[in-house]
Every structure is written in structure tokens, then in C-alpha cells.
Amino acid sequence: MKIIILGPPGAGKGTQAEIISKKYGIPHLSVGEIFRENIRRRTELGLKVQKYVESGELVPDEIVIKLTIRKLMESYGTFGGYILDGYPRTLKQAEVLDKSEVAPEIILSIKVSEDECVRRLSNRRYCTKCGATYNLIFKPPKKDEICDLCGVKLIQREDDKEEVIRNRFREYYLKTKPVLQYYRRTGKLFEINGEGTIDEVTHRIIEVLKSIRTQNL
Ligand code: ADP
Ligand code: ADP
Ligand code: ZN
User: Fold this and answer.
1) Collapsing DSSP states into helix, strand and coil, what is residue 188?
2) Tens digits of per-residue pLDDT, 95-153?
3) Torsion angle, alpha carbons of 78, 83, 86, 87, to 10
4) From 2.60.120.10, 3.40.50.300, 3.40.50.880, 3.20.20.70, which CATH number describes the 2-113+169-216 domain?
5) What is the best residue among 13, 28, 31 to mutate for testing ligand 2's pocket, by most ligand atoms within 8 Å of CB?
6) Using an 8 Å Cβ cutoff, are 28 and 99 in contact?
7) Which ligand is nearest to the CA of 158?
8) Residue extents of the structural domains in the chain
9) Is the pTM of this model over 0.85?
């Protein structure tokens, strides 16, 4: 299965991609997470993208496209599928991906209102060691602001501050919304109601994936 999961910032893409990845045994690829890890390790890539990521702007296509296609080819070669979170975010990214050997078969569009996204993002907490994501209200860690998996203190992402959230939404409406239009025309786009609990949303995604598999038999 080659799956893409799209949606506004805070819609729950990363959360759902992680669950689907475990359930179906396909690797979860998050471009945002690759950038955050590189920023943390102060690699050449990290230094190049830091100013964009931390101000909530999209990283330029020249940097994102090559990197993502390479990672997808690796995942596809080894596991025969992927679930990709947060890419493509521009029409150019979508066009290049669709011409590649790793073109997606299923695009899931997670629909959540902007108010609900902002509520989720302002309570999001993040583990810089393992990349795990929590939510103080909706998915709290067992111990106060400590990662369940590695015991380190959780932080608020630099781009989850209020003024940066606003920039990310501006980028989303301007550059990523047209990508949804583009995929709608291909018939590969499936809309998922992303409101409700994490379990409810997972359930809706699984139902859609099951129905697609049945049709293809
Ligand atoms: P995205 O990858 O789309 O930016 P995340 O998966 O990181 O979104 O989710 C954003 C925040 O909302 C996180 O704190 C996450 O724990 C929380 N979250 C995810 N799905 C839900 C949901 N269905 N209901 C409430 N909170 C959620
Ligand atoms: P969210 O879905 O919550 O906005 P991500 O972790 O997916 O967060 O992305 C964080 C940041 O990484 C983005 O604001 C942007 O700067 C950069 N980024 C991630 N994916 C892309 C992409 N496909 N194209 C350009 N920049 C990206
Ligand atoms: Zn951790």
C-alpha cells in the first residue's frame, strides 16, 4: 500500500500515520520529523531548513522533493509500501511524486476545523529524543510532561507557538489546498472526518482502506 495522509496543521496526520503504520506493517515517513531530527543534530540539511520550519513556512521545493523521493524509494524497495505524512504540500511536489516510481495509490484527506486544530496544537507536546507526540488534554503522558517511552521531559515545538501556527495555516490555505483539488480529480482522494477521538478517526480510516481493498479484489 502506498498511502498519503494530508490535512491542516494539527489535524492528526502524524498520530494516525503512526497507528496505520503499525497495523499494516508499512513504514511511516514524516518529512517534518526528518527536518526536526536534522535540526536537532545540526546537520547541513538541518541548518538549511531551520529558519523555515521554526517560522512555519514551507521549506523550498528544491530541498524537499529530492529528499522525499529518495526516502520513499528506500522504504518502497524494502517494505513494498509506505504511509507518508505531510507531503506533498505544493502542486510541484505532487506532480513530481506522481511521475516517480513511488506514486501514491491512496490519498487520505483528514478534515478538521481550524478552531479544533488550534486547540490540539496548543496542547501538543513533543519528545525531542524519540519524536513521540502527546497532547496534554487528549493524549496525556502517564507522568506529568515526561515521555512514556524514554523518560525525558517533553517540550512544546517551536512552531506550535501561536504566531507561528498562524503562518502555518496561511501556507496551508495558499499552497496545500490546491493539492487536494488536484488529487480529487484523480479519484484517489478519500475524505475522512477527523473530528472526534483518536480511536474514532482510526476506525474511519480503516473502514475506507478496507473498502478500497475489497473493490480491488
Ligand atoms: P499533525 O501531524 O496533523 O500536525 P498530530 O498527529 O501531531 O497532527 O496531532 C496534533 C495534536 O493533536 C497532538 O497533540 C495529538 O496528540 C493530538 N490529536 C491527534 N488526534 C487527535 C484527536 N482525534 N482528538 C484530539 N487530539 C488529537
Ligand atoms: P504539521 O503537519 O503539524 O504542520 P509537520 O511536522 O508535518 O507539521 O511539518 C513541520 C514543518 O516542516 C512545516 O511547517 C514545514 O516548515 C516543514 N515541512 C514539512 N513537510 C513539508 C513539505 N512537504 N514541504 C515543505 N515543507 C515541509
Ligand atoms: Zn521519547
Assistant:
1) coil
2) 999 999 999 999 999 999 999 999 999 999 999 999 999 999 999 999 999 999 999 99
3) 60
4) 3.40.50.300
5) 31
6) no
7) 2
8) 2-113+169-216
9) yes
